[in-house]
Design goal:
There is one protein chain. By secondary structure, the protein is an alpha/beta fold. It folds into two domains: 160 residues, Quinone Oxidoreductase, Chain A, domain 1 (Alpha-Beta Complex), CATH 3.90.180.10; 137 residues, Rossmann fold, CATH 3.40.50. 30% of the residues lie in helices and 26% in strands. The chain contains eleven helices and 16 strands. Strands 3, 5, 6, 7, 8, 15 and 16 form a seven-stranded mixed beta sheet that branches. Strands 11-10-9-12-13-14 form a six-stranded parallel beta sheet, with helices on both faces. It is globular. The structure holds NADP nicotinamide-adenine-dinucleotide phosphate (NAP). NADP nicotinamide-adenine-dinucleotide phosphate binds next to helix 1, helix 3 and helix 4.
């Protein structure tokens, strides 16, 4: 550059961006959540700055808020998945461009109107996918893929799925059916039509479950694999009674599950976090959603300012789909 001048790329904003975000000011109930504002700096190397359009709320957010995942420093932030528009890119980022519509997972502090994320953690949002569905796709979807890989589910399998009406359960049903397996899924009777639509054979959980599974098996076949997204004693006991241990996985990591010798997946002591498998699942999940082979059922959309209400609703544990926050 002549005369020692430095080239400045005028297409890159260099100004800070004001963001509203949710701060958890302590561990505790939903009242610890507060809205705050900050100035986001321009993205650094390897980063992109997103204007967030929708945020997926997950039960794990509530567990972190309550301190069930350990008690680190306060205040802290929540939110692992968002969908949004790239508003600025870091100096060396070439994989995404300003204006791209993307989904970001796994992120830190996704409960925000804008945030900085690593460019490596975004995938293109399918144009046909609404923002809220995009925001709720990847955490449940990646978890579902992990469970199916861990249990080796494929053509001809019959999966006994506990907690089939939840966001993870719904993804497991669709992905298992896509692999040529059949699914016997437990849910409240009011969600049985939903399970049928997704391709599962629905049964109620609770007393008498073993008999209902036996009746279902006459129609569908004996379970060859079991996936537990409910975390109940009945789910664990019945899975162990019907399926060989190496083909049972739970995403509800707890001492009884670890001690039983089944596959415990996700966060928690003794579990397989599946970091690589879940990261690698992002692009295929977006592709499946693009093709309409994987649907995300959004049951509630709330403004970011109503984050406390979103947490109260998820805490009831009967959402039967995704809860999404809109900045
Ligand atoms: N380890 C991991 O990597 C990982 C990843 C994601 C999620 N998780 C955990 O897995 C659980 C499910 O996650 P999610 O996102 O699917 O939650 P969710 O969407 O909130 O799931 C709620 C569903 O659970 C069902 N349910 C409640 N009690 C049940 C029972 N006793 N038996 C069977 N189903 C029951 C309900 O079905 P009905 O309405 O029909 O009663 C409800 O719709 C959460 O605890 C979450 O923290 C773990």
């Amino acid at each position: 550059m002549p005369n020692g001048l430095v080239a400045v790329d005028m297409t890159q904003p260099v100004t800070p961006l004001t963001a509203t975000y949710v701060s958890a000011d302590a561990h505790g109930d939903e009242n610890v959540l507060q809205l705050r504002q900050e100035e986001l700096p321009p993205p650094g190397p390897g980063q992109v700055r997103l204007v967030v359009k929708a945020i997926g709320v997950n039960p794990v957010d509530l567990k972190i808020r309550q301190g069930m995942r350990g008690r680190g420093p306060v205040p802290f932030r929540l939110g692992a998945e968002v969908a949004g528009v790239v508003e600025a890119v870091g100096p060396d980022v070439s994989t995404v461009a300003v204006g791209d519509e993307v989904i970001a997972f796994r992120v830190d502090g996704g409960y925000a109107s804008a945030l900085l994320v690593p460019a490596d953690d975004v995938v293109p949002k399918p144009a046909s996918l609404p923002w809220s569905e995009a925001a709720g796709l990847l955490l449940a979807g990646a978890t579902a893929i992990h469970t199916l890989e861990a249990t080796g589910v494929g053509e001809g399998d019959v999966v006994l799925l506990h907690g089939a009406a939840g966001a993870v359960g719904q993804a497991v049903i669709q992905l298992a059916v896509d692999r040529g397996a059949r699914v016997i899924g437990t849910a409240s009777p009011r969600n049985h039509d939903l399970l049928r639509e997704l391709g599962a054979y629905p049964i109620a959980y609770g007393e008498g479950l073993r008999e209902r599974v036996a009746a279902a098996a006459e129609e569908v076949g004996e379970p060859t694999a079991a996936i537990d997204a409910a975390g109940t004693d009945e789910a664990l006991a019945l899975s162990l009674a019907l399926v060989e241990r190496e083909r049972i996985a739970t995403i509800m990591v707890r001492p009884a599950a670890i001690e039983s010798g089944i596959k415990a997946l996700g966060g928690g002591p003794g579990a397989d976090p599946g970091t690589e498998i879940r990261a690698a699942a992002r692009a295929p999940l977006a592709q499946l959603a693009r093709e309409g082979r994987l649907k995300v059922r959004v049951v509630k959309e709330l403004p970011l300012a109503e984050v406390r209400e979103a947490h109260r609703f998820v805490a009831e544990n009967h959402a039967a789909g995704k809860v999404v926050l809109l900045p």
